[in-house]
Specification:
The protein is built from two helices and five strands; from the N terminus they run αβββαββ. The protein is α+β, with helices and mostly antiparallel strands and 110 residues long. The protein has one domain: 2-Layer Sandwich (HIT family, subunit A), CATH 3.30.428.
């Protein structure tokens, strides 16, 4: 069984989050275990396993997700002068649910 932190924990309310932006279909929130000084996660509320498995999902949902990513990234860039947008695939993807990280600053030491 694969892990889906977003469906199992965030959307169910089991894990509370600090919301940055939300639409009917997309949630952006501060990462619950940030690896960077600024670490925001943007995730569609409909289960999509990953970026490489978008086929068959409504293009409007993909557009809405990317629009929230754009909006959050623009705000982080305005506030910090720079940011990165990352999505992970395969073994790099801990939660098998499409999500984007909007990050700024140096990675925190573990």
């Amino acid at each position: 069984m694969t892990s889906d932190f977003y469906c199992d924990e965030v959307f169910s309310g089991k894990t509370p989050v600090n919301v940055v932006q939300e639409t009917d279909n997309v949630l952006a929130y501060h990462h619950t275990k940030p690896a960077y000084p600024v670490h925001i996660v943007v995730v569609p509320k409909v289960h999509i396993p990953s970026l490489t498995t978008l086929g068959g999902h409504p293009i409007a949902l993909v557009y809405e997700t990317l629009d929230v990513v754009r909006s959050v990234a623009a705000q982080v860039e305005a506030d910090h002068g720079k940011c990165r947008v990352v999505t992970n695939l395969g073994a790099y993807q801990d939660s098998k649910h499409l999500h984007f990280h909007v990050i700024a600053g140096a990675m925190r030491a573990k």
